[in-house]
């Protein structure tokens, strides 16, 4: 799978697996653990979660799947790239490491590859950044970053971060249906070599049923969801993290990482879902 540089020493795959809505109901847990295991066996290496998802439930599902996959040798720990997020209300100097320890416990890991502030809250950015840097210095996380930050937030963050490793990534809502970040946020991040992680890249499943997209996708011999994903990761500097539980979805999405769209298809996609012509407030799900 194609990767993007995350820092001088590390890379992030352009496509991974989301886990929102997992771990919310005990009756679905077995199927969710099986889906994550299947995903790893299929070749997914980047997995995104958060302490918020199922109030720790998604991390527990992921932890169980990781333990089984590592035990059976389906994958090595150093091949995986695990992302989790701290709640804004926990992102204080003391709260951040405590939340991180709870996440590590649920994940059954001794290090999170990328730890994000889920969205901006009331704790000063400098405090959160310093807490993140301290976690990195202790080896509890490899990289830190943010989520749902617009350009002005990113600029403020750059000012707030002192010495030490800076923000490695920003995860925001970006899809064919929500192209706002392409106007100024994505160029700002690209200039700094910082990957943008696109969440809800299939618009929570809606783009998979978009008739015009389906028609174009059929002409290319792919599905609408695959076309939506290929379009997102065709933008330089962008990583997509679609969530899927169904096996066909997992397979389709992984295969979408190999699709290369020609100029005519990208033009047709711009006609169906025009790029932004002005700055719009960052959309959040
Ligand atoms: P999404 O990935 O755009 O869509 C997920 C939905 O699409 C699920 O219902 C899934 O069904 C369906 N789907 C997946 N692949 C499909 C395919 N090939 N064909 C048809 N349907 C398909 O939405 P999302 O879950 O909101 O976003 C993805 C991930 O981003 C989340 O899971 C989470 O990890 C992250 N996220 C982060 C934030 C943030 O604030 N940082 C916000 C939202 C999301 P099945 O599950 O039934 O397979």
Describe the structure.
It is a single chain. Helix content is 40%, strand content 14%. The model has no long low-confidence stretch (mean pLDDT 97). The chain is globular and about 55 Å long. It has one domain: NADP-dependent oxidoreductase domain (TIM Barrel). It starts with a strand and ends in a 13-residue tail after the last helix. It has helices at 29-42, 57-72, 95-107, 125-137, 151-160, 185-191, 211-220, 224-234, 247-256, 263-272; strands at 3-5, 11-13, 17-18, 46-48, 81-86, 112-117, 141-147, 170-173, 196-199, 238-240. α1 (29-42) packs across α2 (57-72), α7 (211-220) crosses α8 (224-234) and α8 runs parallel beside α9. Strands 3-4-5-6-7-8-9-10 form an eight-stranded parallel β-sheet. The protein has a two-stranded antiparallel sheet with strand order 1-2. The longest helix is centred in the N-terminal third of the chain and has 16 residues, at 57-72. It is built from ten helices and ten strands. The chain has 285 residues and is α/β, with parallel strands linked by helices. Bound molecules: NADP nicotinamide-adenine-dinucleotide phosphate. The site of NADP nicotinamide-adenine-dinucleotide phosphate has 27 residues, from α9.
Describe the structure in brief.
The protein is an alpha/beta fold and 285 residues long.
CATH domain class: Alpha Beta
Q: Any ligands, ions or cofactors bound here, and which?
A: NADP nicotinamide-adenine-dinucleotide phosphate
Mean pLDDT score, rounded? 97
What is the helix/strand order? Answer: EEEHEHEHEHEHEHEHHEHH
Strand order, biggest sheet?
Answer: 3-4-5-6-7-8-9-10
Helix content: 40-55%
| Beta strands, count | 10
Q: What is the name of the CATH superfamily?
A: NADP-dependent oxidoreductase domain
Beta-strand content? 5-15%
Q: In CATH terms, what is the fold-level topology? A: TIM Barrel
């Amino acid at each position: 799978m194609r990767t993007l540089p995350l820092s001088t020493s590390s890379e992030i795959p352009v496509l991974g697996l989301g886990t929102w809505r997992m771990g919310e109901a005990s009756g679905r847990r077995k199927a969710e653990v099986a889906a994550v295991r299947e995903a790893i066996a299929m070749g997914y290496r980047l997995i995104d979660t958060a302490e918020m998802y199922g109030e720790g439930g998604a991390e527990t599902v992921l932890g169980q799947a990781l333990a089984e996959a590592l035990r059976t040798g389906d994958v090595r720990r150093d091949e995986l790239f695990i992302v989790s997020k701290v709640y804004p209300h926990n992102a204080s100097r003391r709260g951040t490491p405590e939340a991180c320890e709870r996440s590590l416990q649920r994940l059954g890991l001794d290090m999170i590859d990328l730890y994000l502030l889920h969205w901006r809250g009331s704790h000063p950015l400098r405090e959160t950044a310093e807490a993140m840097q301290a976690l990195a210095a202790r080896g509890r996380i490899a990289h830190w970053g943010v989520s749902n930050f617009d350009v002005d937030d990113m600029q403020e963050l750059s000012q707030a971060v002192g010495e030490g490793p800076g923000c490695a990534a920003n995860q925001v809502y970006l899809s064919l249906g929500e192209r706002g970040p392409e106007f100024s946020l994505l160029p700002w991040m690209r200039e700094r070599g910082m990957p943008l992680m696109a969440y809800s890249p299939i618009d929570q499943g809606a783009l998979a049923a978009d008739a015009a997209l389906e028609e174009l996708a059929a002409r290319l011999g792919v599905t609408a969801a695959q076309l939506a994903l290929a379009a997102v990761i065709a933008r330089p500097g962008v990583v997509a993290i679609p969530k899927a539980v169904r096996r066909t979805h997992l397979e389709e999405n992984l295969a979408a990482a190999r699709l290369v769209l020609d100029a005519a298809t990208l033009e047709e996609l711009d006609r169906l879902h025009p790029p932004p012509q002005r700055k719009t407030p960052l959309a959040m799900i």
